[in-house]
Design brief:
Length: about 170
């Protein structure tokens, strides 16, 4: 039942016209490289001004802003864990990111949401393990929230897309 509501797509998350895209930010919320840099460039300077007013965000939590010049209406900024070998609560903190994003989505009546592979770049989280968490938390949110129409797990490259499809049990076509 949830299969078609959970999709794996490859590409640039800043191009997606969904209700919300998720940003893999850092605790300052003041921008960075990777997907964070791409989102700030595409959204324009008003996003940074808005983020400044939020005063940061702890790891594992999330904050919502408008999307400004993005095709997406909102950005949900979350801060993934830095990978320190797996024995420092990384899995719980990564799952917490997804849960906080889905909670905000629910509170704001968001029907479609797109996630990048949180923590899988600079923060060094092993991608296959992160993919399994992304899929588990997305399925749980889809089951719990009937207003959530679509969850997109966005890979920037084919290797990440393959891991996400594998975790989701989606066969390649
Ligand atoms: N669209 C979709 N995915 C993207 C894009 C994009 N435009 N750009 C990068 N990615 C992918 C990367 O390939 C990686 O798989 O997003 C994933 C997350 O990588 P990072 O952006 O490095 O995020 P993360 O590992 O969570 O590290 C966060 O990076 O730039 C800083 O401010 C950010 O300090 C924070 C840290």
């Amino acid at each position: 039942m949830t299969a078609s509501r959970l999709q794996v797509v490859t590409g640039d998350i800043t191009r997606l016209a969904v209700d919300a895209i998720v940003n893999a930010a850092n605790e300052s919320l003041l921008g960075g490289g990777g997907v964070d840099g791409a989102i700030h460039r595409a959204a324009g300077p008003d996003l940074l001004a808005c983020c400044r007013r939020l005063g940061g965000c702890p790891t594992g939590q999330a904050r919502l802003t408008p999307g400004f010049r993005l095709p997406a209406r909102h950005v949900i900024h979350t801060v993934g864990p830095v990978w320190h070998g797996g024995g420092h609560g990384e899995a719980d903190r990564l799952a917490s990111c997804y849960r906080h994003c889905f909670r905000l989505a629910d509170e704001h009546g968001i029907g479609s949401i797109a996630f990048p592979a949180i923590s899988c770049g600079v923060y060094g989280y092993p991608p296959a393990a992160a993919a399994r968490i992304a899929v588990t938390e997305s399925r749980a949110a889809l089951a719990a929230n009937p207003r959530l129409e679509r969850v997109l797990l966005v890979a920037f490259d084919e290797a990440m897309a393959a891991l996400l499809r594998q975790a989701a049990g989606i066969s390649e076509t």
